[in-house]
Amino acid sequence: MHTTHTASQPTLPAVDVVPIRRVLVSVFDKTGIDRLAKALVAAGVRVASTGGTSTALASHGVVVEDVSAITGFPEVLDGRVKTLHPHVFAGILARGDRPDDLAVLAEHGIERFDAVIVNLYAFEAAIAKPGCQPAEAIELIDIGGPSLVRAAAKNHAFAAVVTSPDQYDDFLAALTRGGTTLAERRLFAARAFEHTAAYDAAIARWMARHAGLVAAPAAAIATAVAAPAGEPPLAARLTLDLERRLPLRYGENPHQSAAMYAPIGTHLGLAGLRQLCGKELSYNNLLDLDGAMRLAGLMAEPAAVVVKHTNPCGAASAGSVSAALATAMAADPTSAFGSIVAVNRTFDRECAEVLLTPGMFVEVIAAPAFEKEAVELLTTKPTWKASVRLVEVPPGDPWQATAGMELRSVAGAILAQRPDVCCDDPVAWKVVTKTAPEPALTLPLGFAFTLVRRLTSNAIAVCQGSSLVGAGIGQTSRVDATRIALEKAGDRARGGVLASDAFFPFPDSIELIKQAGIAAIIQPGGSKRDAEVIAAADAAGIPMVFTARRHFRH
Q1: Is 309 considered catalytic here?
Q2: Which residue ranges form the domains of the chain, and what is each CATH number?
Q3: ∠ CA 275-333-314 to the nearest 5 degrees?
């Protein structure tokens, strides 16, 4: 129950500058507290505080009034209850233009606070530590701190609220000149509500996982979105707090401004990229980087991926990263010029020497790490040093900060799905033709089916060994995708394997595959005309494997 201020209640003249005579200080992060203490003493400000903050302030010469003396009640429950008392909150929330508010303060002997300087328990830092236990995280869910911050922010017309050491300069400047202005207090309040919103969002994400909204069986949560058998349900609510992490040169086109945002606290995947050199990244660069790194990450062996316009135009795995890179770049040299390259191991000198072959150039190189020699080589060559961008992308689960969901924007909404990162199990694959593939084709078939999942559907991948030699991408019919992939592969298709990201709806592609000399086909199956497609493959003498799992990528 609450009451509402009406026009009939008397008010005093509006206040702009509020002198800082009495403040409440309770900070978990003690950064800059020495400077803060010195300024408060010099200005003769009365200070109330609690626990460790009180001790820290006193060590710097501040005469501190303990909150327990104000409330008449000691800290209890191991410090869980300290400031939650009317003598504290009435002093923060009293409206300076309301005689009735001021009369209540006088009646109960309560003094006003002109400023509240509070920052919160380091909840996100705690849960980011390996081995953080639920009990530890729960104790770092701040109760009094956010309440103090919200109270002062609500009453910003009469009280300033400071929530971070990086605001001390502005606060101390106001202290020196005689008080905070209304405009300053509004800005402080806006930052305060952003701070508490981010704090609550972090707790909500953690609590969802802890309570089982993300991790529990689907049957346990009626409000969660239904999920396939064996997969955790999607959370009923996803609260994200995003910060602008990287300004971009431009969006998809130069006339579109753009930036990369990431959930606060996450530094995995592209959210944690570190650019070592080169001009600013663009929106399209990041989309290409995403495609390249995600495909490289699916491969267990040393691998390299070459991406142009979000699709691989070259990919290979080999005994070394440099060998894989050389093969990947040779798959489609024309498309590879000006492309994005990603590898799944440290980018070494041998890799740099591969790219420095005359006639080659790429826009961005991404890797988990770079050898110093490789960086020196690429950044000292005249045709490379001014343009090429080297980007370190840390390994790890980039989906943790979004409750395990991949997000994509559409007009007015966000689509969410589990990312397609699970490995395919060849044990579940089934040979559906009369003839089985030769044993030597087992690894190429697995490589091709891994690769095709990162091509834009409708997609076809033609591979020789562990190298992509032809891709048909983004077509409205599968037969067109097949034709394009085989044309790209040319003579390299003969004796190779072909993978499709979804079933063949008609047997018309099989004749093209036969003419190209493909030795085996791998596809999910599941078409109403599977029997016709299998019959066509048998007639062509081409072994075919069904995986029973589709990998569309729109």
Answers
A1: yes
A2: 22-209 (3.40.50.1380), 270-392 (3.40.140.20), 426-546 (3.40.140.20)
A3: 65
Active-site entry in 38, 60, 154, 381? 154
Backbone angles phi, psi at 119, to 5 degrees: -130, 160
Q: How confident is the model at residue 10 (pLDDT cuts 50, 70, 90)?
A: low
Task: Note the pLDDT tens digit of each residue in 189-219.
Answer: 988 888 888 888 777 777 766 666 544 333 3
Q: How many CA atoms lie within 13 A of 328 on its CB side?
A: 33
> Phi and psi of 468, rounded to 5°?
-75, 130
Match 């562990």 to its residue by tokens: 466
Structure tokens at 189: 């309040």
CA distances from 4 to 8, 9, 506 (A): 11, 10, 70
Examine the residue annotation and report whether 154 is marked as an active-site residue of this protein. Answer: yes
pLDDT tens for 305-320 read 999 888 899 999 999 9
Tokens of residue 124, six digits: 């996100």
Using a cut of 0.90, tell me whether the model's pTM lies above it: no
Mapped onto helix, strand or coil, the DSSP state of residue 374 is helix
Select which of 30, 267, 309, 514 is catalytic: 309
The H or E element containing residue 95 is none
